C-alpha cells in the first residue's frame, strides 16, 4: 500500500486528506490488511454508525476496498464523481461527511472543492479526507 500521511485539518475545509493506494494484484491476506488499515484510519477520523464518509474514487479495486472499509465502520458512504466537480461540491455542501477517501491525485481538487463550498453547512465534519486507490 502506498500511503502518505493525512493532511490534518486542511485550513478552511473541516476535512483532512488521507492517502490510500492499492496495487492491482493482491493476495487475500493483503486485501484484508489494506481494508483493516483503512477501516482503522476512518474510525480514527470519526467514521461509525450514523456518520457519512465521502468516497471520490474511480471504478477500481481500490474503490471496492474503500467501500468495504466504510461498511465495516458502520458509516454510510457518500459517492462523489470526480468527473463532475459541481455535483461533488453540492453533495459536500448538503452533507456532513466525517472524512473522505479519494485518489492521491484528486486530493488537492477535493480539498479545494470542500474549501470553496464550506459555508458552515458542514459543521459536523472532522478531519479525514483520505486519497485512495492507485492501480
UniProtKB/TrEMBL annotation:
UniProt superkingdom: Bacteria
SUPFAM superfamilies in UniProt: Acetyl-CoA synthetase-like
Short name of any one Pfam family annotated for the protein: AMP-binding
InterPro entries in the cross-refs: AMP-dep_synth/lig_dom (IPR000873)
UniProt entry keywords in alphabetical sequence: Phosphopantetheine, Phosphoprotein
Domain AMP-dependent synthetase/ligase: 23-109
PANTHER family: BETA-ALANINE-ACTIVATING ENZYME, CARRIER DOMAIN-CONTAINING PROTEIN
The name this protein goes by in its record: AMP-dependent synthetase/ligase domain-containing protein
Organism: Nocardiopsis gilva YIM 90087
Amino acid at each position: 500500500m502506498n500511503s502518505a500521511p493525512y493532511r490534518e485539518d486542511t485550513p478552511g475545509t473541516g476535512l483532512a486528506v488521507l492517502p490510500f493506494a492499492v496495487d492491482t494484484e493482491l493476495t487475500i491476506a493483503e486485501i484484508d490488511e489494506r481494508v483493516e488499515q483503512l477501516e482503522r484510519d476512518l474510525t480514527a477520523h470519526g467514521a461509525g454508525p450514523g456518520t457519512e464518509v465521502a468516497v471520490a474514487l474511480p471504478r477500481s479495486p481500490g474503490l471496492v476496498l474503500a467501500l468495504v472499509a466504510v461498511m465495516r465502520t458502520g458509516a454510510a458512504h457518500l459517492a462523489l464523481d470526480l468527473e463532475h466537480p459541481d455535483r461533488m461540491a453540492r453533495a459536500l455542501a448538503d452533507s456532513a461527511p466525517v472524512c473522505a477517501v479519494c485518489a492521491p491525485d484528486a486530493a488537492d481538487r477535493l480539498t479545494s472543492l470542500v474549501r470553496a463550498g464550506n459555508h458552515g453547512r458542514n459543521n459536523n465534519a472532522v478531519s479525514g479526507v483520505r486519497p485512495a486507490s492507485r492501480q
